[in-house]
Design goal:
Layout lengths: L16 E7 L4 E6 L4 E6 L4 E4 L8 E6 L5 E5 L2 E5 L6 E5 L7
Antiparallel strand pairs: 1-2, 2-3, 3-4, 5-6, 6-7, 7-8
Length: 100
């Protein structure tokens, strides 16, 4: 069986690139740089990678889309809602507030 080899489609320097998330309706790939921190959006049709406006402020370890728009972002201090229009975070819950 002839298995295709992986191919690099864009070289993007990241400290720790993680959490790839393909959004079928947009045909775009979202991903995080956990150590910078930043959220990126890659458009394979244009080859353009852009940074989303987001006031993350600290280490980010994951994200998911919200049904009502925007994202839920996992940070050191718990879960926050990210408004994509403003880039602002709204804390939702900190499951371990006593843990540094």
């Amino acid at each position: 069986m002839n298995t295709p080899a992986p191919e690099c489609i864009v070289e993007i320097p990241a400290l720790l690139g993680e959490n790839p998330l393909w959004i079928p309706s947009e045909k775009r790939l979202y991903w995080l740089d956990l150590m910078k921190p930043a959220i990126y959006r890659f458009d394979p049709a244009t080859g353009k990678n852009s940074t989303l406006r987001a006031e993350l402020g600290s280490y980010v370890s994951g994200m998911v889309q919200r049904q009502k728009g925007g994202w839920v972002v996992v940070r050191e201090d718990g879960l926050s809602a990210l408004d994509l229009a403003t880039g602002r975070l709204q804390p939702l819950v900190n499951p371990e507030p006593d843990q540094p």
